[in-house]
């Protein structure tokens, strides 16, 4: 079996073939395979990794990992300071996915944004999963209809993804329901570790398919169930923080939107005002770019409240969950 790097005889121009992991000193084929399995597919991903993570992934010492990272850094342009115009250019590439409710879209500045995490939290039945299903269909629409002509990845932690409902929602948008289902890639996450491992899998998939939406439904349920008691809180927050940063990186690399759902729990410390709050507290809140609180109103109405956003005013929008999906 010859490694992928053996390109002798190919008529590719010199210097155009991207460097492979195996090209780094100290990285043999076995190490490269382990790194790829852990989601480090190219030199850029290695260059910005932490020695700790690389050491674990490749089962090597931290010193060796450090050297590999340094070699990777020599070979790629690692982002440091960026000019304002480069940032503007990146912002220009931002895509938006319609929720199919004009009011909801407006609340979000024109739809769910790519290169960002949108966290929706609320009680059971508030419409979080329905929003994920709607977006998994609308992302497939062409841009002139509010989509990105893309596909979706869905990490399902509670076994609540419903293919029949997706096909119903897709049909209402004029999409071919069978094709629409093929364009949504669903994985069931059995525990928090598995959930984290599905992110590198999503990276692999998105290198082959035009994935523009990643749904994590629910972001916090496994973490909440597994890390019990005050003693486990710091660990849980650290793991959640890391998980969310991996999700953000996915959004940046593939110019994809990330939708995370989150439950609410009672906050016994709150005596006045709303006694419920999203799980994961500040870690989740600070990492999410947009934070939306969903609550039930007179059926089929729902109220979305934008709680936290870098550039949009706080506000509310009323939408409905109908047989056809989300509408005004
Ligand atoms: P949890 O996951 O339990 O925390 O809730 P959630 O916020 O994910 O709720 P979900 O998105 O599953 O919303 C459920 C609600 O959506 C139901 O109570 C219904 O009102 C509505 N809904 C779900 N499926 C349909 C459907 O096929 N037709 C219609 N008309 N409404 C639906
Ligand atoms: Mg749900």
UniProtKB/TrEMBL annotation:
UniProt keyword terms in alphabetical order: ATP-binding, DNA damage, DNA recombination, DNA-binding, Nucleotide-binding
Disordered: annotated segments: 1-28
Gene Ontology MF annotations: ATP binding; ATP-dependent DNA damage sensor activity; damaged DNA binding
GO biological process terms on file: DNA recombination; DNA repair
Segments forming domain RecA family profile: 93-264, 269-328
Stretches that traverse the bilayer: none
Xref: SMART domains: AAA, HhH1
Similarity field: Belongs to the eukaryotic RecA-like protein family.
Record-given protein name: DNA repair and recombination protein RadA
Organism: mine drainage metagenome
Species lineage: unclassified sequences, metagenomes, ecological metagenomes
């Amino acid at each position: 079996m010859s490694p992928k790097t053996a390109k002798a005889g190919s008529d590719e121009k010199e210097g155009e073939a991207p460097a492979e992991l195996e090209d780094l000193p100290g990285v043999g084929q076995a190490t490269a395979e382990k790194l790829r399995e852990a989601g480090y597919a190219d030199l850029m991903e290695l260059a910005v990794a932490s020695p700790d993570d690389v050491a674990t992934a490749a089962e090597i010492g931290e010193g060796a990992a450090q050297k590999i990272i340094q070699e990777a850094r020599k070979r790629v342009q690692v982002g440091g300071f960026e000019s304002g115009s480069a940032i503007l250019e990146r912002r220009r590439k931002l895509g938006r996915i319609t929720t199919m409710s004009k009011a909801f879209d407006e609340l979000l500045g024109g739809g769910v944004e790519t290169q960002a995490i949108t966290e929706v939290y609320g009680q059971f039945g508030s419409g979080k999963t329905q929003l994920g299903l709607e977006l998994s269909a609308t992302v497939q629409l062409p841009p002139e209809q509010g989509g990105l002509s893309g596909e979706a990845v869905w990490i399902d932690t509670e076994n609540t993804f419903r293919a029949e409902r997706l096909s119903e929602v897709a049909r209402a948008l004029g999409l071919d329901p069978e094709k629409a289902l093929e364009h949504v890639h669903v994985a069931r996450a059995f525990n928090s570790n598995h959930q984290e491992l599905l992110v590198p899998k999503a990276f692999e998939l998105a290198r082959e398919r035009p994935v523009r939406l990643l749904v994590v439904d629910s972001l916090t349920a496994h973490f909440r169930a597994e890390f019990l008691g005050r003693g486990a809180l710091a660990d849980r927050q650290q793991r959640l923080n890391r998980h969310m940063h991996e999700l953000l990186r996915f959004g940046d690399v593939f110019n994809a939107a990330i939708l995370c759902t989150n439950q609410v729990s009672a906050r016994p410390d709150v005596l006045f005002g709303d006694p419920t709050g999203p799980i994961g507290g500040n870690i989740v809140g600070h990492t999410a770019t947009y934070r939306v609180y969903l609550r039930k109103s007179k059926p089929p109405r729902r109220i979305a409240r934008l709680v936290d956003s870098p550039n949009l005013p706080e506000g509310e929008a009323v939408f409905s969950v109908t047989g056809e999906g989300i509408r005004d």
